[in-house]
Amino acid sequence: MSLDLYLTNKADFIEKQLEKALPANDIYPSIIHEAMRYSVLGGGKRLRAILALAACEVFSGSFEQAIGFACALEMIHAYTLVHDDLPCMDDDDYRRGKLTTHKVFGEGIAVLAGDALLTLAFEELAKMPEKYQVSTEVTIQLIKEVSEAIGSQGVIGGQVVDLDSEGKSIDSNVLEYIHHHKTGKLFIASLKGGALIGGANEEQLKAVVDFGTYFGLAFQITDDVLDLTGDATRLGKPVGSDTEQGKNTYPSIFGLENAQEMAKECILNCHQAVTSLPKTASILGDIADFILNRDH
Ligand code: GRG
């Protein structure tokens, strides 16, 4: 099966699962459920969910067991995007080719939709033993991994330093802190969580975390590069917004060509990281290659 088909099939499958997991539009109070569904459904590459399912399968786990975890990751990811787009953060009007949540529902409902998605994600995680036969021990470990990844020393910490750095000149250590936390931590938790459900041992988990670290960095560098060189229609959002907002990015600090080289090196390290894993781990390397060459 080609990688494109693999990614499309997995993304379609995750979309259907998310459709079921999110409260229906007509459940009272409708407006919040409409905003939650608007924010999550009908767009996005579903990379975090796909990485979780893929990592689970690498270790011969059944991906069905990882579905609740994968849905929770996409809910959390959508929450960060909704909040990131707010006027008090990046103030963006478009995301995934459509108006951002606060543009459609207003700021108050957008904040609450993000909050409700985060809350629902933890409900999904807590239901893993009864719905997906994940052991209670692994479930608790996953809740801990995800909480650490997205808290004040994870995604939120990265966002705080990012906000604080706007318009200031920062060095490469601070830039790396921002992106390792803001972008990398959720990718790492997705991969590690999937591997945990699949039954990976300590050594294998370490390899998966190394892979995720380089993957997150490569992902962010290509994101920065696409903001300069990408096509707005393909990206589903305007290009050039990083420069407009005075953001520190890999191209702004290292130059465009150096940034592109750094992304390539990260992908080589991704491949290197998984050499000790079962042959089935080649799918992770393929997804890493896709990240480097993506146009959206
Ligand atoms: C609690 C106020 C508050 C905020 C949460 C806003 C925030 C913390 C974090 C921001 C996280 C963020 C937006 C990280 C950027 C990661 C990134 C490059 C996202 C785009 O990911 P894709 O390309 O998106 O995978 P799709 O649309 O494909 O799902």
Characterize the structure shown:
By secondary structure, the chain is mainly alpha-helical. It has a single domain, classed as Farnesyl Diphosphate Synthase (Orthogonal Bundle). Helix content is 73%, strand content 1%. It has 16 helices and two strands. The chain has a two-stranded antiparallel sheet. α3 (47-58) runs antiparallel to α4, α8 (136-150) runs antiparallel to α10 and α10 crosses α11 (202-229). The chain starts with a helix and ends with a helix. The mean pLDDT is 96. The structure holds geranylgeranyl diphosphate. The site of geranylgeranyl diphosphate (GRG) has 16 residues, from α4, α9 and α10.
Notable features of this structure?
296 residues; Farnesyl Diphosphate Synthase; globular
SSE arrangement:
Elements: H1 3-21, H2 30-40, H3 47-58, H4 67-85, E1 94-95, E2 98-99, H5 101-105, H6 107-126, H7 128-132, H8 136-150, H9 155-165, H10 172-198, H11 202-229, H12 232-235, H13 241-244, H14 250-254, H15 256-273, H16 282-293
Antiparallel strand pairs: 1-2
Helix pairs in contact: 1-4, 2-6, 3-4, 3-10, 4-6, 4-10, 8-10, 9-10, 10-11, 11-15, 11-16, 15-16
